[in-house]
Every structure is written in structure tokens, then in C-alpha cells.
Automatic annotation (TrEMBL):
<keyword id="KW-1133">Transmembrane helix</keyword>
<comment type="pathway">
    <text>Cell wall biogenesis; peptidoglycan biosynthesis.</text>
</comment>
<protein>
    <recommendedName>
        <fullName>Probable peptidoglycan glycosyltransferase FtsW</fullName>
        <ecNumber>2.4.99.28</ecNumber>
    </recommendedName>
</protein>
<keyword id="KW-0131">Cell cycle</keyword>
<dbReference type="InterPro" id="IPR013437">
    <property type="entry name" value="FtsW"/>
</dbReference>
<keyword id="KW-1003">Cell membrane</keyword>
<feature type="transmembrane region" description="Helical">
    <location>
        <begin position="214"/>
        <end position="232"/>
    </location>
</feature>
<feature type="transmembrane region" description="Helical">
    <location>
        <begin position="166"/>
        <end position="184"/>
    </location>
</feature>
<feature type="transmembrane region" description="Helical">
    <location>
        <begin position="76"/>
        <end position="94"/>
    </location>
</feature>
<keyword id="KW-0328">Glycosyltransferase</keyword>
<keyword id="KW-0997">Cell inner membrane</keyword>
<dbReference type="Pfam" id="PF01098">
    <property type="entry name" value="FTSW_RODA_SPOVE"/>
</dbReference>
<keyword id="KW-0573">Peptidoglycan synthesis</keyword>
<keyword id="KW-0961">Cell wall biogenesis/degradation</keyword>
<keyword id="KW-0812">Transmembrane</keyword>
<feature type="transmembrane region" description="Helical">
    <location>
        <begin position="372"/>
        <end position="393"/>
    </location>
</feature>
<feature type="transmembrane region" description="Helical">
    <location>
        <begin position="292"/>
        <end position="317"/>
    </location>
</feature>
């Protein structure tokens, strides 16, 4: 019997084939192997570059008690933990995530409150962002990114019938994001708030919220960020430093990281200075193994290395969005919006980090997903990608005529 082709959904219909009727085997149509290799490549390159960027840190008195491979060994441990967590999470049906999405969001709010308590966390560079859990410092804002993607998708499914009404569809979500924002700004962590706001707004827009309401929310958020910058001396100084990083007033102050990041890219030229040959990582560029890892890549691997990383993130984000559109076409709106929310998270955060490193955006404390050093960040990145793989797996099962 010839295979039947049919399509579902609204404006995003996709051809879906009944594999059962063709008699063809479901030959590991269960996962996207190309996406697996792209993620593995990003993790592997990140591991190499974290080692390269951190190998000289023990020369600094602050890290004198650490071995040259200290950050590498911990990073490998975090990747292993993320791999194990991903294997567990990919077994969880999306129906379970949909059922418990509100509770996960509440749990993330509670953790964002707990991290502000003086007897729970200790300030690092003036910020309270980590809850110490023995060998790892857990960052609740990373969990909040996944939680907001799940909660916003769940919220849009529940509010689908009233999505054209501002006060019934938009205001409750705006209030939830506002609460998260207040807690993050108290840490302070404006970068995480920016990513979370992007995820929530993106899901509202993709979920079908009226365009005028979406632009109204955008205007309110932009206005809020402008007010926060205007009322904060140090944030305002960061903007001025970003606009003129070579000014003598800022080069050794607020623009110190940016100026040395730009020097690193300049030294890298087309093909780079060679792996391990960065000069800026030798205590000139602060946080080289976390926020400014791309600058070390630029110096050691040149334009070619940076372009490869940018292309990999572009391809990955585009593929995640394709999986989300496919799920929506199969009438799985929650799964599709979750996947697209994670795509906004990965693509948006990577864009901001790259923009900061290249001097296109003001300096923010955001890591490069899947690559920068960081325990909870790598762990949640791997879990988020496992959720996307689960969405893809269920899509493929439905296209073979089975059940998700």
C-alpha cells in the first residue's frame, strides 16, 4: 500500500508520512544524528578552549592552590553530569513536563529567593547568584530559563482561547516575568533577566498573541531597561564605556574586559596565533574561561574558528526551531513552543555573548552556551537539549504512525 501523506496545523502545515502503511522499518528515525554531532562538537571545542583559557590561572595568587588542569577536570565532570542528566530527561514524555511546568516555575522562584539569603549564598564579585552544593555552585537563574520556557508554553496552551485579550492573556504572564526580573535584579543578574524576558516574549509571540500587544510589551520592557540604566550609575558607566572603550577614562576601568577582548580578536586575524598561544589569557583578559571564551577562540583560532562557532550556533538554533514548527504542525502546541523557547534561549544567549565579546553589545555577564566553563550552566544546557531531543523523538514517532 502506498504511503499516505497528510498535514495538520494552521499556517505551519508540514507533510507527514504514515510510515506504518509503507511497511518501512522505523530505522532510528528516533533522533537527529547531525544535531547530536553539532552539540558534541561544541562541547568538545568548549572543553579544549576552557583548558587553554584557564591553564595559566594558577599563576594568579587568587588561584595559586589550583593545578593547571583544575578547571578542565571540573568542566569534564560537569559535561559528564550533563550527559547523564540528558539521558534521564530524554526518557520523560512531554506530557509530564506539561503537567508539572507550573510547579517547576514555582520551584525556580523559590530558589531565586533562597539565593538572596545571606546565610545560604556568599557574594562573588558583589553578586549573590550561586547556592553552594559541595563541589558545584548551583545558579538558580539557569533553572529559571528552562522553567520559564516550560511555563510560558504551558500558559499559552491554557490561554489559547483568550490570547487576543490583553488583560486575560498577557498581564498574568507579564506579572510572572516581572517577579522573576525583580529577584534577578536583586542578585544582580541583568543578563539572565534579559534572556528570560526574551524567552517569555518569544513564546507569547509564537503562540499567537496579538501583534499590537506584543509590540506594546516590547516597548514597556525596553523602557524598563532604559530606566534601570538611567537610575544606576555603574550601569550607565558601562554603556558609556561600551560606546567608547578606547577612552583613557574607561580602558583601565569599565571597558577593561572589552578592550582586551578586542585586542585578542585583532591578534587572531584570519587563522589565529595557534592553539594555546593566546597572550590575553595570561591575566590580561578577566574571566577568559567563562564570559570571554570566544575572545580566546578568536585569538588562538582566528576568524576561521570564530566563524565556525557562529555557524554551529546558527545551524543549531535553526534546527531547534524546525523541530518546534514540526511539533506544532502535528497539533502538539506545548511541545513546539517549548522547543522554540529553548531555541530562543540558546540562540539569543549565544548572540548576546558573541556581541559582548566583539564589542557589538554592552558588557553582560552571560556565558557562551554549551562551551563556557560553568557547572549549572552546562548541566541545564544539556537538560534543555535533551528536552528538544524528546520533542523530536515524539514527532518522529507520530510521523511513523505511532503514539508520542
Amino acid at each position: 500500500m502506498a504511503g499516505r501523506w497528510f498535514s495538520r496545523g494552521g499556517n505551519q502545515d508540514l507533510p507527514v508520512r504514515d510510515w506504518v502503511s509503507t511497511g518501512q522499518p522505523a530505522r532510528a528515525q528516533g533522533f537527529d544524528q547531525t544535531m547530536v554531532w553539532v552539540i558534541v562538537a561544541l562541547l568538545a571545542l568548549g572543553m579544549v578552549m576552557v583548558y587553554s583559557a584557564s591553564i595559566a590561572l594558577p599563576d594568579n595568587p587568587r588561584f595559586a592552590r589550583y593545578s593547571p588542569s583544575y578547571f578542565l577536570s571540573r568542566h569534564v565532570l560537569f559535561i559528564a553530569m550533563g550527559f547523564v542528566a540528558a539521558l534521564v530527561v530524554v526518557q520523560v514524555p512531554m506530557q509530564v513536563w506539561e503537567k508539572y511546568a507550573p510547579w517547576l516555575f514555582v520551584a525556580s522562584l523559590l530558589l531565586l529567593i533562597v539565593v538572596l539569603l545571606p546565610f545560604v549564598s556568599k557574594p562573588v564579585n558583589g553578586a549573590r547568584r550561586w547556592i553552594p552544593l559541595g563541589f558545584i555552585g548551583f545558579q538558580p537563574s539557569e533553572l529559571a530559563k528552562l522553567a520559564i520556557a516550560l511555563y510560558a508554553a504551558n500558559y499559552m496552551v491554557r490561554k489559547m482561547e483568550v490570547k487576543e485579550r490583553f488583560f486575560r492573556a498577557v498581564m498574568p504572564m507579564a506579572f510572572a516575568v516581572g517577579v522573576v526580573g525583580l529577584l534577578l535584579l536583586a542578585e544582580p543578574d541583568m543578563g539572565a533577566f534579559l534572556v528570560i524576558a526574551m524567552i517569555a516574549m518569544g513564546i507569547l509571540f509564537l503562540g499567537g498573541v496579538n501583534g499590537r500587544m506584543f509590540f506594546l510589551i516590547t516597548a514597556v520592557l525596553v523602557g524598563a531597561f532604559v530606566v534601570m540604566i538611567a537610575l544606576s550609575d555603574w550601569r550607565r558607566e558601562r554603556i558609556f564605556a561600551y560606546l567608547n572603550p578606547w577612552d583613557e577614562k574607561y580602558t583601565l576601568g569599565k571597558a577593561y574586559q572589552l578592550s582586551h577582548s578586542l585586542i585578542a580578536f585583532g591578534r587572531g586575524e584570519i587563522f589565529g596565533q595557534g592553539l594555546g598561544s593566546s597572550v590575553e589569557k595570561l591575566h590580561y583578559l578577566p574571566e577568559a574561561h567563562t564570559d570571554f571564551l570566544l575572545a580566546v577562540i578568536g585569538e588562538e583560532l582566528g576568524f576561521i574558528g570564530v566563524a565556525a562557532v557562529i555557524f554551529a550556533f546558527f545551524w543549531l538554533t535553526r534546527r531547534i526551531f524546525h523541530i518546534g514548527r514540526q511539533a506544532i504542525a502535528l497539533d502538539r502546541v506545548f511541545s513546539g513552543l517549548v522547543a522554540q523557547g529553548i531555541g530562543i534561549w540558546m540562540g539569543g544567549q549565544a548572540f548576546i555573548n558573541m556581541g559582548v565579546n566583539l564589542g557589538v553589545l554592552p558588557t553582560k555577564g552571560l556565558t557562551l552556551p554549551l562551551m563556557s566553563y560553568g557547572g549549572s550552566a552546562i548541566l541545564l544546557n544539556c537538560i534543555a537539549m535533551a528536552v528538544v531531543f524528546r520533542v523530536d523523538l515524539e514527532n518522529r514517532q507520530l510521523m511513523r504512525g505511532g503514539r508520542a
